[in-house]
Write a sequence for this structure.
């Protein structure tokens, strides 16, 4: 919203202690446009922080699609195999029991447990892979040094261009951020 | 931070039939959802203390009953030959059924892209988990030697033994433990962004620390959201078949036996429908007071109650269809035991009351829900939901007890006399459920606020105004909230 004038907070730290420059926006449209522009300007090491999942922002910021689905798929197959093998091994190989002359490899009886193991493996892979790849639990993150960042979980949208970006130059990047129509631009300490 | 609103200060809120009231913002959602959680202990509303005291007394009764069970043994309870299953299995099936609506709301409706699930999914999932806790304890208590219940699991042991994987009772172990653990995971993952919101809003350092630990350091980065949304979708896709499979598996405990009335292929779908039916009744029982007492009427709107009531009616009619099929199949099978089973259920001198009471509760009492006016009336919805909960309990009573009392040989027929402890363990488990429920509404956000913000965004950008306007017109004519 352009009604609010952007102002810059300086961190006054040595360049090697700088994590990046962060711009704060009030709307989804604002951060989407800013991310597109930053990508067009050639910035690669950037990340946005939003209170909810914004559709398409991952592409705008330049993230690759996640491989989570494939990992879950293969772990689901593993769960299926584990569940089935466990029952087959115990009932056919390890402790065969003749019950009414029925075949030892009575696989229809094993469908339920095989299915449950598939679901169990897939679901926990999805949950734990997501947490693990995101680096959680992670109590400290430099982005938390951003002034006003507690609103990133409420109603504000933040775009950070990190200092490790090849194109990063403190003054230039800050000037560039100002042109994106943010409500605030801040230098953030590592 | 915006000034916190207290429920008692909020003026009467206009009801709405939109998925979310007009004019809600990201911040207003946060405030109304987080306010009850953030309140200092001294400002907890009085009804909460009254509620948790009553529920806590129920929990004490539950614990006393469990101690009686462990010290005296199963003989203190009513189950005996031929009714070996008794109240334990009735309550087990009843509770696990109640849980199913929560997973249906959170998983199935997410996959079907139903935006109205968003504001009730958290509470419904919590209900699921608490119901599964109550349910899962029953089979463990029911086995004779509760302290060796872990023998049910395949674990390395010095006996060199495995569980009997061909038995439906062992399928249950896997189905319920998977259901419980996946539900808790799904619920916790859903809570992470809201914990982060509470951490960022916290005015007290203990709260910041407490919710900071729970949110695992969530910072809302887009990469994290990308993985999160994918994981959430996959968890929903995993949970949806669980809804169908868990109660089907429980139905197979019955269906794979040879007892007349149990050995039916209708059992799994009929149990699943009954589960969702009972579950939506419990959702309404919990949500109607919750939205009033926390002032959530703008985000848990009449639309949610209306839709839940519609689903309750639809699944209820499937259950009624199941009753017809049971009667028809008993006649059509030509098996005299099956025919006698139905005759005994309907006209037997001891238990016919239970059958006709359940027909009233599950078949007749839900018929007013065809009317929009009834679905828009919270008092009627609440009363009907309680009747349905009782009806579903009676249904399990008829299936378990009435069937077992009269199986094949008249010489092996018997009675069933529930003791004081049967009832105390049952009402005690309701106390356990509500103790957990009251702790939940006080300590955790009972609406998924990050998902609600997404809904606010979509509602303000892609809301289909054409249909909304047409619906509003119709509702206005009938004098219902728009």
């Amino acid at each position: 919203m352009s009604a609010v004038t952007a102002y810059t907070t300086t961190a006054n730290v040595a360049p090697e202690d700088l994590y990046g420059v962060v711009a704060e926006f009030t709307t989804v449209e604002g951060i989407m446009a800013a991310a597109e522009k930053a990508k067009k300007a050639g910035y690669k090491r950037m990340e946005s922080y939003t209170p909810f999942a914004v559709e398409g922002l991952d592409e705008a910021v330049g993230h690759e699609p996640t491989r989570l689905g494939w990992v879950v798929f293969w772990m689901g197959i593993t769960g299926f195999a584990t569940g089935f093998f466990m029952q087959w091994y115990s009932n056919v190989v390890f402790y065969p029991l003749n019950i009414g002359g029925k075949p030892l490899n009575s696989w229809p009886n094993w469908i339920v447990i095989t299915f449950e193991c598939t679901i169990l493996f897939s679901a926990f892979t999805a949950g734990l892979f997501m947490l693990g790849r995101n680096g959680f639990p992670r109590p400290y993150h430099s982005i938390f040094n951003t002034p006003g960042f507690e609103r990133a979980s409420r109603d504000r949208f933040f775009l950070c261009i990190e200092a490790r970006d090849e194109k990063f130059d403190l003054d230039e990047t800050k000037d560039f951020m100002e042109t994106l129509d943010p409500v605030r631009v801040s230098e953030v300490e590592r | 931070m915006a000034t916190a609103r207290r429920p008692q200060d909020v003026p009467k809120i206009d009801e709405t039939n939109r998925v979310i009231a007009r004019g809600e913002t990201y911040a207003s959602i946060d405030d109304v959802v987080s306010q009850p959680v953030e309140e200092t202990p001294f400002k907890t509303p009085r009804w909460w203390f009254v509620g948790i005291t009553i529920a806590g007394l129920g929990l004490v009764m539950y614990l006393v009953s469990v101690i009686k069970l462990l010290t005296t043994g199963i003989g203190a309870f009513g189950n005996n030959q031929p009714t070996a299953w008794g109240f334990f299995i009735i309550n087990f099936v009843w509770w696990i059924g109640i849980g199913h609506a929560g997973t249906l709301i959170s998983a199935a409706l997410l996959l079907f892209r139903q935006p109205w699930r968003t504001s009730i999914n958290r509470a419904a999932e919590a209900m699921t988990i608490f119901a599964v806790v109550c349910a899962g304890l029953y089979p463990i208590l029911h086995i004779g030697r509760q302290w060796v219940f872990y023998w049910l699991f395949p674990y390395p042991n010095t006996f060199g033994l495995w569980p009997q994987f061909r038995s439906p009772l062992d399928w249950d172990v896997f189905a319920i433990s998977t259901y419980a653990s996946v539900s808790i995971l799904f619920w916790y993952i859903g809570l992470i962004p809201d914990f982060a919101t509470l951490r960022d809003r916290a005015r007290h350092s203990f709260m910041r620390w407490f919710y900071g630990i729970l949110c695992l350091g969530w910072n809302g980065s887009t990469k994290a959201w990308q993985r999160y949304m994918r994981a959430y979708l996959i968890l929903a896709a995993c949970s949806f078949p669980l809804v169908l499979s868990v109660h089907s598996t429980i139905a197979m405990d019955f269906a794979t036996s040879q007892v007349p009335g149990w050995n039916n292929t209708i059992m799994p779908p009929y149990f699943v429908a009954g589960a969702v039916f009972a579950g939506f009744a419990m959702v309404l029982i919990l949500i109607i007071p919750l939205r009033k007492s926390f002032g959530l009427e703008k985000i848990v709107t009449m639309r949610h109650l209306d839709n839940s009531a519609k689903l309750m009616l639809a699944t209820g009619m499937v259950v009624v269809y199941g009753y017809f099929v049971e009667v028809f199949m008993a006649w059509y099978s030509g098996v005299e035991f099956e025919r006698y089973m139905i005759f005994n259920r309907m006209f037997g001198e001891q238990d016919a009351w239970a059958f006709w009471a359940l027909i009233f509760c599950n078949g007749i009492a839900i018929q007013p829900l065809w009317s929009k006016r009834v679905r828009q009336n919270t008092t009627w919805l609440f009363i009907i939901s309680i009747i349905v909960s009782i009806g579903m309990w009676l249904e399990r009573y008829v299936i378990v007890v009435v069937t077992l009392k009269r199986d094949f040989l008249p010489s092996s027929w018997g009675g069933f006399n529930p003791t004081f402890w049967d009832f105390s363990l049952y009402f005690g488990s309701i106390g356990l459920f509500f103790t957990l429920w009251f702790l939940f509404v006080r300590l955790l956000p009972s609406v998924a606020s990050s998902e609600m913000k997404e809904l606010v965004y979509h509602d303000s950008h892609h809301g289909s105004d054409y249909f909304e306007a047409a619906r509003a017109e119709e509702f206005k004519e009938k004098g219902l909230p728009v």
